[in-house]
Specification:
The chain has 18 helices and 17 strands. By secondary structure, it is of the alpha+beta class. The strands form four sheets. Strands 2-1-4-5-6-7 form a six-stranded antiparallel beta sheet, covered by helices on one side. The chain has a six-stranded mixed beta sheet with strand order 8-14-15-3-16-17. Strands 9-12-13 form a three-stranded antiparallel beta sheet. Helix 6 packs antiparallel against helix 10.
């Protein structure tokens, strides 16, 4: 719901800050007072395009900001997550229209695009009247209204899953067909490259191992001489380190018998002797095991050269070479088995087309049942709302096709959309004797609002759009019908927040919250203001609707009767 609306320097509005409430909110005001300006400002919050012409004279920018209560609105949460906006109980949408032509849009102080708030606008607000944001005037939306009244949402979700899988397989097939010619042309080259790699048969990390081995083999003579010298110095020569240190260790051990202070040093010397012995053993074993065979050296050099050549040609590392080998191996297999792979995908596509067709057929059956159920209900609701001779129907159509993106039903191809194979359009006749015609072409703004009210009344339990705005819903209706319209809107306000602009006291009397827009003169300039009427002000404003600016006793009496009859 809309909790708060703030507008600054917008048309005749210098600054207003108004709190709206749950339930049925009614806005009153004389012609030209600024009601349409208010609706225009609300339209900006749901994605209408802005023009610098709306900026109040001498102002640098206009600001429109709305605070919406969004707790529990899962579709809104999904959109916010998609555009990386944190989901909280409150969402603040802010539009800034600059005189310089630059416009800015914010969601909770985060800059976003017009497309982002259009997505949110469709989920937060349905605005009806002499305005562009009328979902009933968008034929593509009719099937959504119909489906919301039906009980087959589960089947639609299953259908969408089938279609998603079908389109994925179709894309896979197209990719495969596009690849077929290319791969067949490259098959000979790929086979040569595969043989070249497999003849070497590299293993990941092998080059690093070979490089380490070659460093040893290429320096074997130096390594042998050095280790042999170290071994001799430490252990295998006259006056070796081991023999000299053994004498020292023996002397210190004798000193321990007379003074324990030598104990620690005797132990250290014993450890040194052990370490020298270990080092000497390592040096002896190392020199004894050194490879000095030039044939082995040359063999490893040749192996490393072959590996380096593969790296240079196929990616710079053995890992890249092996990945390339895996790719061309799979491509070769694919090229050699194209017929099998294509037939396999075609069979999978055919199966999915049939399965999707079966679900679409079930949806169509339930959709027709829903249509037969709601058509008389909407006609009755329209009669209650003053369109007494209305005839209403839902036209369901399907399109066949020879090819393209279709599903298969009983051997026939049908074009599909996200809702199945049906397209829906609302048809209406509002005068006796007239044939049914498309709603989008013949209904007036006031009729559109009342048709929407009839639909929303039927949808009250299922519709998730929290705010409905009705502008000019009272156009062309009498006081008796207006009372019925007011009653229906009050009922609808039990499940939705309603904001309605009206000129009729019979509708205003049903308001749970009443607001008045007034045009004043301040500093020789016209200014629109809005205020909430409370207590006796409500009676007075309804009476003013009845009698005009001069409120009579009779108007007061009539207003009291209207309020007491609610």
């Amino acid at each position: 719901m809309l909790k708060n609306l703030y507008i600054k320097d917008y048309a005749l509005i210098d600054e207003i800050d108004i709190e709206f409430q749950k339930g049925f909110n009614v806005i009153l005001g004389e012609t030209g007072a600024g009601k349409s300006i208010l609706i225009g400002a609300l339209g900006l919050l749901i994605g209408e395009r802005a023009s610098s012409e709306v900026i109040r004279k001498d102002a640098k920018k206009a600001i429109v900001e709305g605070a919406f209560e969004i707790s529990g609105l899962q579709k809104v949460k999904a959109v916010l997550e998609k555009i990386d906006i944190d989901f909280d109980d409150e969402l603040i949408i802010r539009r800034e229209i600059s005189a310089k032509g630059s416009n800015r849009i914010f969601l909770n102080d985060t800059p976003v695009t017009l497309a982002d708030i259009k997505l949110l606008g469709d989920l937060l607000v349905d605005l009806h009247g002499q305005h562009s944001h009328q979902s009933l005037l968008r034929t593509e939306k009719h099937i959504d209204f119909l489906d919301e009244l039906g009980d087959y949402q589960n089947e639609i979700e299953i259908f969408r899953g089938k279609i998603s899988a079908l389109e994925s397989k179709r894309a896979e097939l197209q990719e495969l067909l596009a690849k077929e010619k290319e791969l067949k042309e490259k098959l000979e080259l790929y086979e040569f490259k595969l043989r070249e790699i497999d003849e070497v048969a590299p293993e990941e990390g092998e080059d690093a191992t070979l490089e380490a081995e070659l460093r040893i083999l290429e320096n074997a003579e130096f390594l042998f001489n050095a280790t042999n010298e170290i071994y001799a110095t430490l252990y295998d020569s006259e006056n070796s380190a081991y023999d000299s240190l053994s004498l020292v260790e023996k002397k210190v051990s004798e000193l321990v018998r007379y003074d324990e202070q030598f104990r620690e040093h005797a132990d250290d010397l014993a450890n040194m002797l052990s370490a020298i012995s270990d080092i000497a053993d390592f040096m002896r074993n190392y020199k004894d095991n050194l490879e000095l065979d030039p044939e082995i050296l040359e063999s490893k050099r040749e192996r490393l050269g072959a590996l380096n050549l593969l790296k240079k040609k196929y990616g710079g590392s053995l890992k890249a070479v092996l990945e390339f080998r895996e790719k061309i191996y799979n491509d070769i297999n694919l090229a050699q088995n194209f017929t099998f792979e294509i037939e396999k995908l075609q069979d999978e596509i055919l199966t999915l087309r049939k399965e999707a067709g079966e679900v679409a057929q079930e949806i169509s059956k339930k959709r027709k049942q829903t249509t037969r159920k709601i058509e008389p209900e909407i006609i009755d609701a329209l009669k209650n709302l003053g369109i007494t001779d209305a005839t209403f129907s839902v036209a369901l159509t399907q399109k066949g096709a020879d090819a393209g993106n279709t599903v298969l039903i009983n051997g026939k191809n049908f074009v599909y959309n996200k809702n199945g194979i049906d397209e829906a359009e609302f048809l209406i006749s509002t005068n006796p004797g007239e044939e049914l015609k498309p709603l989008v072409k013949i209904a007036s703004g006031g009729e559109i609002s009342r048709i929407m009210l009839a639909l929303k009344t039927l949808l009250a339990e299922k519709d998730n759009i929290p705010l409905l705005i009705f502008d000019e819903i009272d156009t062309g209706i009498s006081g008796r019908i207006a009372k019925k319209v007011g009653g229906e809107m009050r009922k609808l306000a039990a499940t939705h927040q309603i904001i309605a602009i009206t000129h009729l006291p019979q509708i205003a009397a049903f308001a749970e919250h009443l607001y008045v827009i007034e045009k004043r003169k301040e500093e020789n300039r016209a200014v629109s203001k809005i205020r909430k009427a409370n207590g006796d002000e409500i009676l007075l404003e309804i009476a003013r609707l009845i009698s005009g600016e001069t409120v009579t006793d009779a108007a007061i009496k009539h207003a009291k009767e209207l309020l007491s009859s609610v």
